[in-house]
Design a protein that fits this description.
Two copies of one chain form a homodimer. With 501 residues, chain A is of the alpha/beta class. Chain A folds into two domains: 14-229 and 416-497, Zn peptidases (Aminopeptidase, 3-Layer(aba) Sandwich); 234-287 and 329-411, Alpha-Beta Plaits (2-Layer Sandwich), CATH 3.30.70. Helices cover 34% and strands 21% of the residues of chain A. In chain A, strands 10, 12, 14, 15, 16, 17 and 19 form a seven-stranded mixed β-sheet that branches. A six-stranded mixed β-sheet of chain A has the order 1-2-7-3-8-20, with helices on both faces. In chain A, strands 5-4-6-21 form a four-stranded antiparallel β-sheet. Strand 12 of chain A pairs antiparallel with strand 12 (331-340) of chain B.
Chain lengths: 501, 501
């Protein structure tokens, strides 16, 4: 690496060494690294299995305790605990919190090639001619293209795993952390973090820090290491649109009895243009303009369209914008639509109702409350009557367009300052941990509740992903590529031992 | 009844007597009438059960044979047979064919209050405080508001049943038919009559007649007896719209990867206006203008909106037109829509596909071929690539909007001359069989393949319905109201013994 700026030289001269040292340690310990990872994935830490959540939390707490951390399970009634750990570094003036989450998306085991909580190593992505590998009996170093399959492998247990392994590497290498270290590992991120704010607020003193590093989401699609300084927020709703009280012969009554499937389709088309633009009046009013630093960062991101079109087998995206430009905008996603019957089950009838599931990905300065108000005002302007339960006969007879809406709470988007000294220090340390150029993104398309940390702590927040982008997170056959684990250990080691500002 | 015109007096003076006589016979035989109806409904004569179709056809053939008809099963390979019967009347100069169908719509037994092929009598419509009645042990005469529940009860086994019972009544009363009688009972009407044309054409000589009476569809919503001289045609398709090859995280890729649920919704909204108008260019070009006789008949039909809004629990129809005006127009019905998941099963993902099921109700002079061509031209103009099988990777990568379409054959609409001597004779005979004024409709909203009969036989075609309009045909809990059975026997007896022109 060439040194072109004083700070970068200072950092990279030391960190190149650190990366090499960590890589050396890792190469000698690949099996030891994967063993606890295998254990961690085996916990059924999904919302439907509270005992799996509790077991994972206990294991993680023990892992910190063993390493000398002061630990605690931060809890409020009815919520999975936050695993908290703290380890001061004598003489350090900065404190960094490492956030990750140990819960995973729900699973539908029938969709998985192998059971979601029995980790299986494969020589590559499913469908690529890969084969199952018995890594426990294979001799390291392992092929870095191997992938470990299991729910939460990439989203997001790998972030906790590389934290622990990076810590061990530094200890083994005799390298002292450069910062005070805190850990916040959440247990209900995949459920929308409904209690995180309350837990953080109750423990605000304990959690004070100069920087939050958010270990979640995948690295850039180009495989470059990624830092992100913002993330889209989220809200959404499930709606039911009502037609006749019973299925009605669509010959005798088609053109006369309102068709809820057609109404649902019209509603979607009124809210969303074919290129994804949201047509709800006022929806874009709160979208914050981009800074010149953000525009520069966006321009510097490598192209990904070609690879992604191939991966998703699509001829073209729905917009002419680049992916990063598209996710700088809010999105209206139709997650699901159901009305009547299709295929051989279809009957010539006007269906009794239509169900519609939509989520909104928000960008600064949109909030769920604003979006909800805008959507409901839009619906009322279009003649809809909004109800919160199945309408009775009197309601049906009184109102021509009835929609039942069930909103998710969700949370706002957040984007922090890319140009702060803290952000620059994180970028320099991350760059020192990789031979590839960094990808620095003003926004992550997926949602991470960054705004909660900002609202309570007002400290810089930077996203530090580990997983491969094609890890099937939120789907069946989630997996983590070994090279991403190794890179994650490098960058986490740099964040503990190289950060200074 | 007052006699105001010579012909009406001639007919009604005799027919009033016939109606009274038939009513008298029926009152004495109500249990005997329902017993074979119960047997007939028990046959699983639906497309999915060919052996049920065959059994019903055999039973019907025997019923005709027993009554002295020459019978035959008219068949072509792969199709349910048409039950044909013929009984000449010495001295008669006119021949009338009575058409009905003995197959029923598919069933979803879980949606039924009682199994669809185990007929159950109830004291009224479901949900009206009704109770189950054991009609086999009850003493007739039965309450005419009782309803017999079972698949095909109203659509359309009742038409065959009342034919047989009217024939028995005439015989018991010593009344000779006034016409030569032929019977055509079809076995795949609910599948769109794909082989009817072929069967009729092959047997055209046998089937020659001066009048086709089509025993299908419900009477007028006002409960008046209905004659119809036309019926909408039908075609339709099931379509699959393709998104990414696997479910894609809608945070990271929402706004960029095309969403097939949104595409399906847009497509529906582009094809169909909120008031039901079809927006496909050229779609209305072939719609025939109304004659003044038709306009008069439409104006004379009693209003039904109030009762129907109550029955369907809708505040208002989707159009400001009267029902009869709405069904004089073609319709685009969305039978079903499915994409992704809704409710608690929803995940934050862009679905891999969307399925859409649509039928078109056609009016003269539209044909399925024209509609198909118009729809496909419209789709191509909107950038869609139409395929007939699941696209492979190369196809997906080459075309941005891919839709797989599976068309149903369907058939054209038909409207015959309301002013012909034959039509007038049928109207007079029908009026003689009822104490209520007739409702005469230029069009039936539902589809009956009248055009096939016209194309082959060029004889007048008139629809003669029996079932109550609220018989849940094409839905769960199909039923027939006993008064409609009794009225059906009256009008069928009049058509056999009173017709002359």
């Amino acid at each position: 690496m060439l040194c072109v700026a004083a700070m970068a030289c200072t950092v990279s001269a030391r960190a190149d060494t650190l990366k090499q040292q960590v890589d050396g340690w890792r190469t000698a310990h690949e099996q030891d690294i994967l063993t606890p990872f295998d254990t961690l994935i085996r916990f059924h830490s999904v919302a439907a299995e509270p005992q799996g959540i509790a077991a994972a939390a206990g294991w993680l707490q023990d892992a910190l305790k063993t390493r000398g951390f002061q630990t605690e399970l931060l809890a409020v009634p009815g919520a999975p605990p936050v695993v908290f750990g703290s380890l001061p570094t004598p003489g350090a003036t900065r404190t960094v919190v490492f956030y990750a989450h140990y819960d995973g998306q729900p699973v539908t085991p029938s969709q998985w090639a192998t059971p979601p909580f029995d980790p299986v190593m494969r020589s590559g992505p499913l469908g690529s001619g890969e084969h199952v590998v018995d890594w426990k009996t294979a001799t390291p170093p392992y092929d870095p293209e191997w992938r470990l399959y299991g729910r939460s492998a990439g989203d997001d247990k790998v972030s906790a795993l590389v934290f622990l392994q990076a810590f061990d590497a530094l200890k083994a290498l005799g390298r002292r952390p450069s910062v005070n270290i805190k850990v916040v590992w959440e247990g209900e991120e995949e459920a929308g973090s409904p209690h995180l704010q309350e837990i953080l607020r109750k423990n605000a003193d304990k959690l004070s820090a100069d920087l939050w590093l958010i270990g979640d989401a995948p690295v850039h699609q180009s495989r470059r290491p990624l830092l992100y300084v913002g993330a889209r927020g989220i809200t959404g709703f499930d709606a039911t649109i009502y037609g006749p009280i019973k299925p009605v012969h669509d010959g005798h009554y088609g053109n006369w009895v309102p068709n809820p499937a057609a109404l649902a389709a019209e509603l979607v088309a009124e809210m969303r243009a074919p290129d994804g633009r949201v047509l709800i009046p006022g929806f874009m009013d709160e979208v914050r303009a981009q800074t010149s630093a953000e525009r520069k960062a966006i321009a510097a991101l490598p192209p990904v369209a070609g690879e992604l079109k191939q991966e998703f087998q699509i001829a073209q995206p729905e917009t002419t914008d680049r992916l990063i430009e598209a996710i700088m905008r809010p999105a209206l996603n139709v997650r699901g639509l159901r009305a009547g019957k299709v295929g051989t089950a279809a009957t010539n009838a006007i269906p009794v109702d239509a169900e519609l599931s939509i989520d909104f990905r928000l960008v600064p300065d949109q909030t769920p409350e604003h979006v909800r108000a805008q959507v409901e005002a839009f619906l009322r302007a279009k003649g809809w009557t909004i109800v919160d339960r199945t309408p009775d006969e009197a309601t049906r007879l009184a109102h021509p367009r009835i929609i039942k809406i069930d909103w998710e709470a969700g949370y706002a988007a957040f984007r922090s300052d890319m140009s702060s000294p803290t952000a620059r220090a994180v970028m320099a340390a991350a760059q020192s941990a990789s031979d590839m150029p960094l990808a620095i993104s003003p926004m992550l398309g997926g949602s991470v509740p960054l705004y909660i940390f900002d609202e309570i702590f007002h400290a810089p927040i930077i996203g530090l992903p580990v997983a491969n982008h094609d890890d099937n997170q939120h789907a069946a056959n989630e997996n983590i590529r070994l090279q991403n684990v190794w890179d994650g250990i490098d960058v986490y080691a740099a964040m503990m031992a190289e950060l200074s500002w």
